[in-house]
Design brief:
Length: about 350
Amino acid sequence: MRPTEISQSLKIAWSANIATMMWGTPGIGKSDVVRNTAREEGREVRDIRLALLDPTDLRGIPYYNLDTKTAEWAVAKMLPQDPNSNDVIFLDEINAAPPAVQAAAYQLVLDRAIGEYRLPENVRITAAGNNDTDKAVTYKMPTPLLNRFTHLEYEVHFEDWYDWAIQNNIHEHVISFLNHQKSKINQFDPKSASKGFPTPRSWAVTSKILYNQPSEKIARGMIAGTIGDGAMSEFMTYRKVYKNLPDPMDVLTGRVTKLPDRDDVSIKYAMMTSLVYTMRDEYTKVTDKKTDFKDFDKLCDGFFSFIHDSDNFSPEFAIMGVRDAMKNLKIPIAKTTAWKPFAADYGRLITGVAK
């Protein structure tokens, strides 16, 4: 299931009080889906890593009650105490926990209770784990525990990641490269000896490295240690394409009207991403009242003139760029004077985006 489908499934499961478990390779964003979905549903996430706990950490410890003259159990603080709580208990990497700790989670998942403690009625349980074949530390989960969950197989889906990446300010070089090389979004190989490998998580880390503007040598070393040598080499080669592009402001102001080396697909991807991100930055100046919308309108005229030219971009590329600008970056280019000529040709293909 793609991430958007996982999110929809979690909402249904939480509504129906169904315990769920996601399975997938390391670094693909399982925990992010849980947190984002919980935020949309107005729920807090209690991230409980069973692999880091002893059985008593979850079960609590016994103590002698002087008032009742009996032994009782102190409830673990990590479990919700408020009877009106609607938190999500997230048992991440559950199958990395030793059998004794998994056993402590039996009753919590099966009966929504541990000893005398009962989960509040509106609290929900979701778990996640890596596959046994992923070269991660895993223990076989007992059949009764497996049978309590509805299992969701998480599959990395580029379009879902792409929307997330633009909205979360992932570096434009990363977005552009992966838009061009979609298969590189997730290349986990349990048989590989490489310490770094491409995953949605490691690409997000690569973005953070780039935003800190390291030297070329430092960047190559750090990125290789994040996504692996092979992916790093391809990515850094692609970055050189960016450095040789025309200044996007020269395109938007009409000083450059033709795309260099128009047969190179990588240049098309890089140029379009560069233009869209520059448009975003220029519109931010409008919203911050540092410039007038009329100035932005003139830049849009250069943008549409450039991408509407069939010698520069095919209709597919032009539509991709406009969709990114309008849908993901929320740039109101449909309100500019240059929109109508473009929409006359391609507006029907951008249905549901223009506002």
